Amino acid sequence: MHYVSATGISKSYGIKPLFTNITFNISEGDKIALIARNGTGKSTLLKILAGKDNVEDGTVWVHKDVTVALFEQEPQFAEELSVLDNIFHYKHPVAEAMRNYEKILAEGSKDTDALTDALARLDELNAWDFEAKVHQILNKLNVQNLDQKVKTLSGGQRKRVALAQVLIDIGFEHKHVLLIMDEPTNHLDVEMVEWLENYLNQQKVTLLMVTHDRYFLEDVCDVIWEIDEEKLYTYQGDYQSYLEKKAARIENTVANIDKAKNLFRKELEWMRKQPKARTTKSRSREDNFYEIEKKAKQKVVDNQVELQMKMQRLGGKIAELKKVYKSYGDKVILKGFDYTFKKGERIGIIGKNGAGKSTFLQMLQGLELQDSGKINIGDTVVFGNFSQQGLEIKEDMRLIEFVKNIAENFPLADGSTLSASQFLTLFLFPPEQQYTYVSKLSGGEKKRLQLLAVLFRNPNFLILDEPTNDLDLPTLSVLENFLSDYRGCILIVSHDRYFMDRLVDHLFVFEGDGVVRDYPGNYSAYRIEERAKEKNKDEPKKAAVIEAASAAQKPAPPAPEKKKFSFKDKREYDLLEKDIAALEAERATITEKMMDQSLNYDQIQQISNRLTHITQLLEEKETRWLELSEYIS
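Request: output the structure for the sequence above.
Response:
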């Protein structure tokens, strides 16, 4: 069953075409990811399908039995109403019964008759299964204080309430739902993202979404749409397959352009020799000539930033933190934190929302004072801060003016310089766009301009606080390539697992109550270890289930079909090989240290504890590596 059919649709933003004459269908059960550069119409296309925007040409048809649910980047609420009233805004008997029940609970009412009536109504509607699902959604997304007015919520809280609202809304529809999601993982921590992955995979929902989270995309979607040069391309398969097929498409396009150029040269010679009075046959050939000319003059644009910056020299002393304490009332952020940064360090910072990650970054830059302890910053350190606050512009100005206010030129490693205009072009702002006002940019384009502004100041210590939010995948790829070659220090706070895996060497894990653990691995390795701990906690429960199943003497189920070795599995497999090698090397070093006769008891105990931990980690990682090696063989 087709949920949506679009035929020959076009849309422009001012004089700029976003997409032209594109045609597609969305069928029941499809799970589609939409990829494109910021400003090329991703959010606009989603709004058109949700009925919140119109096309200029073509037609869009939505099946009359299909309900379209839209999760937007900037959610709209009834600001004066509570979280509870916004979530249960749906005019549905179950929604109204649950709103009444939850309101009584939230108010702590002692009116037992009202509570009894509310419970009776839920019984009457057989709504308890759905009530359990609602509580799961609210708990997993950490949506609390249901009586709080929406206008008082932070940006992250608003996004999580909006996500809870749309997931609960689609639960009221028992048949055909098209769920459209624009960057659903922004402002979610990694546990929430992993839960949302599982939830969407378990639900019988048709899905179209925009996301920059490649692991999320890989796990949830099986079709990828790409808007490129005003056209829509469809790729079946995962993200890795998309990258391979796109490369093949570009290569094929280049080959066709080369053929057209050769034919164009021959036809151009013929055109010049022909007399002015032409036959019907020659006029037909002339018309064909102009089609060939159009093909021959096509340009394939595959924008990438290649930038070797002349970074200011980092001295021997970079940053040193000694016995740093920080609290806000009863909430402890740091408790005696010690660390000395080294040249070229790449550290990821993770932890639950509100654990103090952003405060730590502010303290390092001297924007927030510690309660006690010392933070010493080297004289040569130049911080570049990419924050969640976004661009800070006192008045609206054109892009080129904004960059020139920072500097006229950007120094390169070879001694040459780039002008402000050339730098903008490298960051995918072509000359014809550079005189656009900043206020006219899309949210993602503003993020790209903010990133450009940070780098244009030529820092040698980059601090990136959720840099991937609202950046499109092409820009993310550009940023990752740039940071891979960056020789300064990098501190990254991000919930984007792929981004962190590619760039960081170790992690600061904010565990709460002032505890910060230095984890010697990347994000995926950390998550594997955490899941192993959770698995060990669940082992007694699983053993009881297995024992009960054996007692029932049920026939064994058929062997499961061999799991597909996905892009994410391949990444995990490669990371495990590196982690195992690093842990084995560390175990050998520690074993050698234990032979040192000068060590005191405390030192021996500390080394022994670390050796035990490494041995346990190796067993877990080697077991997982063996599991994955079965798929790759």
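The longest strand covers residues 2-13.
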